[in-house]
Structure formats: structure tokens, C-alpha cells
Design a protein that fits this description.
heterodimer; A: alpha/beta; B: five-stranded parallel β-sheet
């Protein structure tokens, strides 16, 4: 049985470029779910799903309320909702107040996933301009999961991964080209 | 696509502009984007696009007005303008603006590429 049930990826400004480089290099037979939570504005959701789909043979799906989390699928959090996962491994979308000026908030998503997946969760934080995600990564570590952070030197906007690097006892700090290899070994 | 086609996109949604740029670059196009509608005909003239995508909601001058300005300038009036909007009446807005066609938001990659194929090839 795999030691990883899910990778949750958080990102903000500058993270789309990273995903477009990482996704094509992922092995297609992943036996865990990949969940992407990006700070984004409403209005371009279909284009983003289409664009990510065009870079990988792994199915990419925008999350809908109550969707079950299945291995071998890349899930994309919709704009304007917080993303949570329930104990029965279904997604839940929440339209409550913004957290860290963001909805979806990466902290909210990571904290929820940490509670459910515990040591079988990997959290990955990418480029971005605010500190959303740091508390979520701390929670993932506290629950026994693993944390990887994009190296701030390789981030278009380094603040978010740099903050995470300061406060979180991470498992790996990776350059963009190292991220796919790290995930493929899971 | 043989020669690189030039696409100008007016929209105030930065994410949509970034995505459309990535998608259409994959499709072999050269892209210029603008989030402001001031002097739209001058902006267009400087780039010389084969096709223009015009969003309805822009600061200062609406998409309808910006399209009318482009269509009133004979230097650029021949360039096809595709009107884009999330409004239910996007077809009426496109007609009022004098646009050549319209695309209802949200649209997907194939709808975007079809418009470029139809008007810029």
C-alpha cells in the first residue's frame, strides 16, 4: 500500500508556470490524488482546467461539491470557495469569509486535508505573494505528513515559499525541475 | 499554422489574459493584451493584430464603446473583433458594438481556437 494518499498543492502568483512545467513530467500511473488549490479570480475556470489537461494524460477535474477523492486524478479547486475534505474522503466547498484575503485559502485546504490524511498527506507550496499556506503546512507536519516547498530562488514571487521555509520544518526545498522527480518517487 | 497570427485581447481579468496567452501561444499565435480600453484604436494600430478579442467590462470605456472606436477608424476597422462577455445578452452587445462575432464566457480552449481559426487564418 502506498505511503501517500494525496498531494495537496497550494500556489498563488507565479505558480501556474510551475504547474505547467511539473505536470507533463509526472508519471501517469500515480496511485494518489493530486489536489491543486490556487488563488484565482472567477471567470476563467474552464480555461484553467483545459490548459492543465493539455499538459498531462492524468485526468484533470475541477472539483464539485461532494465529489469523491479518487487516486490517479488531478483535482482543481474552483475559484471563490474554500476547499475542504471530509472524513469519508469527499470534497466539500464552502463560501464563508475569505481567509488571508483569499478564497480558496490554502491554509483552510491544507488544514482540512491534514486532519483527514494525517501521515499519508504531502503538502507542496509554490510561488506566491502572501503567507497563506504556512499555517496549513505546519498543521500537515503536526499530523505526521510531509511538506515540500518550491525553492524561493526559483519562484517568480518568492514571499510565500520563503515564509514557509522560515517557519516550517520541511522535508524538501526543491527547484522546479526537481519537483516532478520527487513526486514520481512516492 | 503557417505565419504566426497576431491576437490582441482586451480584458480586465489578469488570470484570463494569462491563460489565453499561454493557450494561444501553444496554438502558434503572438499575443498582446491590454487591461485598459483608452485609445483602443491606437493600441490596436501599434500591434497590427489579425483578430481582436474585446471584453464587455473594461475600466473607463466599455467594450461596446471601444469596439465602436475601432470600427470607426478605417486604419483598423477591417480587423475582426470578437466580443466576449458573461452577460446573457452577449449577442445583443456584440451587435450594438458592431463586432464581427461573439464568445460567451465562460468559454473553453476549443471555442477560443475556433474563433482564431475562423477569422485569422
Amino acid at each position: 500500500m502506498s505511503n501517500c494518499e494525496a498531494i495537496w498543492i497550494g500556489g498563488s502568483a507565479g505558480s501556474l508556470d510551475v504547474l505547467l512545467k511539473v505536470l507533463p513530467r509526472l508519471r501517469e500511473d500515480i496511485d494518489f490524488a493530486i489536489v491543486i488549490v490556487l488563488h484565482r479570480k472567477p471567470g476563467a475556470d474552464i480555461l484553467l482546467t483545459d490548459l492543465l489537461s493539455s499538459r498531462t494524460n492524468i485526468p484533470v477535474k475541477e472539483i464539485e461539491e461532494k465529489d469523491p477523492v479518487k487516486p490517479g486524478v488531478i483535482y482543481l479547486a474552483p475559484s471563490d470557495y474554500h476547499l475542504l475534505v471530509e472524513r469519508d474522503s469527499t470534497f466539500s466547498l464552502d463560501h464563508s469569509e475569505k481567509v488571508n484575503y483569499s478564497r480558496p485559502s490554502i491554509d483552510v485546504a491544507f488544514e482540512s486535508a491534514a486532519e483527514v490524511y494525517k501521515e499519508k498527506l504531502v503538502g507542496l507550496l509554490l510561488s506566491g505573494a502572501n503567507a497563506d499556506g504556512v499555517n496549513g503546512l505546519l498543521k500537515i507536519k503536526k499530523m505526521g505528513g510531509r511538506v515540500i516547498i518550491q525553492h524561493p530562488d526559483s519562484a517568480k514571487v518568492s514571499y510565500m515559499p520563503a515564509q514557509a521555509g522560515l517557519y516550517v520544518d520541511y522535508d524538501a526545498l526543491l527547484q522546479i525541475e526537481e519537483i516532478a522527480d520527487w513526486i514520481n518517487k512516492l | 499554422m503557417s505565419a504566426e497570427k497576431k491576437v490582441f485581447i482586451f480584458d480586465d481579468n489578469e488570470e484570463l489574459l494569462e491563460l489565453c496567452t499561454l493557450i494561444l501561444e501553444d496554438f502558434g499565435c503572438e499575443i498582446k493584451t491590454s487591461m485598459i480600453s483608452d485609445n483602443p484604436d491606437v493600441q490596436v494600430m501599434e500591434f497590427g493584430p489579425d483578430i481582436i478579442f474585446m471584453d464587455n467590462w473594461l475600466p473607463n470605456i466599455s467594450g461596446v464603446e471601444a469596439t465602436k472606436i475601432i470600427k470607426a477608424n478605417k486604419e483598423v476597422s477591417h480587423i475582426p473583433v470578437i466580443y466576449i462577455s458573461a452577460n446573457n445578452n452577449v449577442e445583443d452587445l456584440a451587435r450594438e458594438a458592431g463586432a464581427d462575432d461573439y464568445l460567451a464566457k465562460p468559454f473553453d480552449i476549443s471555442a477560443l481556437e475556433e474563433m482564431v481559426k475562423k477569422y485569422a487564418l
